[in-house]
Write a structure and sequence with these properties.
The protein is α+β, with helices and mostly antiparallel strands. It has 5 helices and 5 strands.
Length: 209
Amino acid sequence: MLGVTGHVNFLITPPSSHFDGGIGITACNFKNAAETLKEHGSSLDEVLPLCYLYRHAVELFLKSVTFILHKKYAIEFGGEFSLDRPGIKVRDRWVAMENTHNLSDLYVYFESLFCQWKTLLPSTTRWDLPRDIKQKINLVSGTDPKSTLFRYPKSGSEEQDKKKTKIQKTDLDKAFANPDKPAKLVVMLDENDNLIESYDLDADTLGKA
């Protein structure tokens, strides 16, 4: 979408001079940070900051393309919002873009603009959206609607918070049920070597979020 700005030098000019005020390049920076962490990270629970970096990049990309469409085609905002203080329409009311973190809300508004103004976009580019993009956005948004799940130990959802660490309480008898998956466990014993608790150190919990 950066192509509609006409700025091919967005990587070598200050963010404040960019067509979208630097939102897109900031999204790129978060995406690049995520890819670096994914390649070189070693922390047991590095998946949390990794998910946050990717999620925030998606949020900023959605805000960038929304802002670009408004500015490029002089689309007026509702309420008291403007290019200096952009907003998005969530259902029947306008809210400040900077205070909006729900990916589904951001996508729905972007999609409505995109469909309405698509015919004005440069014909040299293919603008079709992936068929499953909305489903994927809703999946991430449903898991982390307020952009808090991956940033804080307590996000407001006890069930979701329990899934944020690979270290999970487990049944020792069932830990070795799958012969194709080696188990990495810690067991807690009392003074008589009786089992108190056992923990799986590499549980796939976010995959179930």
